[in-house]
Amino acid sequence: KAASAPAAGPTVLRRMAEADVIRLRKYEVPIKRVARKLCLDPALIAGIISQESRAGLLLNNGWDQGQQRFGLMQIDRRYYQPFGMWDSEEHINQCSSMLVAGINEVRARHPAWSWDRQLRGGICTYHSRAGNLQVYDEDPCSEDSNYANSVIQRAQY
């Protein structure tokens, strides 16, 4: 489960993101290397890490409470073979590659959408796929736009 309540307001998200920035510093180098390799904004990767695991705060040896989702970016082991250690560059690369694939899929399916909407759709597609949910809707954010909004807000810190 994502690291915030669905209705968390901007003030709550800001406080969580500001606290996560301190923990994220230790992952700055691998995040930047992966971001450069995949042509992503490092802040977007950090936003997902903050949303999914509070930069590791919510994890027990890399696992969520249910022992199903793994790593800083929380990939579901029932559907994907996690790569690397839970906080490794390899893990960040695996999940960030899934994010890029989601963004590219949304861009291909919806070329007339604005870049902002395509990005939000890609973030929602990543979130769905990390848990192996299939995205059939025209708009992958139609079920839960709060996830994409939270990631983008967290990426600003």
UniProtKB/TrEMBL annotation:
It catalyses: Hydrolysis of (1->4)-beta-linkages between N-acetylmuramic acid and N-acetyl-D-glucosamine residues in a peptidoglycan and between N-acetyl-D-glucosamine residues in chitodextrins. GO terms for biological process: defense response to Gram-positive bacterium; killing of cells of another organism; peptidoglycan catabolic process. Its main location: secreted. Belongs to the glycosyl hydrolase 23 family. Keywords: Antimicrobial, Bacteriolytic enzyme, Disulfide bond, Glycosidase, Hydrolase, Secreted. This is Lysozyme g. GO terms for molecular function: lysozyme activity. It is found in: Secreted. The keyword Membrane does not apply. The gene is Lyg_2. Its EC number is 3.2.1.17. The keyword Magnesium does not apply. SUPFAM superfamilies: Lysozyme-like (SSF53955). It is an enzyme of class 3 (hydrolase). GO terms for cellular component: extracellular region.
